[in-house]
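Extended Data, panel c. Modelled sequence:
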Amino acid sequence: MWEAACAWPEGLTEAYGAARRVFGSAGVAAADEPIQAVVAFGLGTGGAACDATAALTAGQLAVPFVTCHDSLVPTFVGPDCLVVVVACGDSPETVAAARQSEARGARVIGIGNDLELARLVAGAGIPWCEVGAEGARGRAGFGPATVSLLGALSAAGLLPDWSAEVSAAAGFVARRRDAFVAEKGNAAELARRIGRTIPLVYGSSGLAAVAARWWKSCVNLNAKSPAFAAELPGLTYDELAGWGQGGDITRQTMTLVFLRHDREPSAVPALFESVRAATEEVMADVLDVWADSRHDLGRLFELALLGELVSLEMAAREGVDPGPVPAVEEAHFAQR
């Protein structure tokens, strides 16, 4: 798991280029009716890639981008919609969404390595881009799946070519990874400070919020530990009020992690300080984690990779195998 997490930055450029080639040659953009909306389906790692793409392209897409984390296909989905199904592992809900969308005449494309989904799209003639390198499976597929989705949107004529941005982000995140994993690097130090407490990860809306949810998922899956995430400004309208009681318990059990970057909306830094003032006495610790990249794609991947590595360090500290997730597998088996 450690090797897979450390390897994915090097695969970003190749994954992006592969998606551009696959979906470009499939003629995703060629149709009598222009694309009026994009609907992206995914859960787990695939869902995180959908959320990341929504955050990264919010100011660039000229059509709505809707993310769905279940099998329910919105009523408006039809021939003028591009449906992207993303599954980095077994995802029966995503397979069901692909079937429904294809039956409605939507333009469906697939990204990932779910074998059932791959068989479905092959049988239906749906364009498919595998995110299948050994370092890109499961939880380590977040970065490659995200850039593959960006490549699909570019091939569909909805985004410009992001090749330069992806290449720059890959190089930057690889350098940051080397710093994170160095002796006494950020990953080990943050895991030490979190210790056996429950991390509560806050990020501002957009890419930092996506990274916060990714931290939560990685701690849940890798360290087999509780973790929670929320975003600003939304949490200041409800969740913040919940820290008025129970400080005797929470200051022994919870650590607050702020994910920060220098492109936050102007009101957000003051909100972070308000949250700090309201919570620091009821938390075991409050940790600030800053992204160093000057570009959104680099910021997102830097924060996401650090969270993945911190969760693996947490697992190692407790002697937990980060690979198997029997609780998740049993829940999916019961679903069938």
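The chain has a mean pLDDT of 92. This feature is highlighted in the accompanying rendering.
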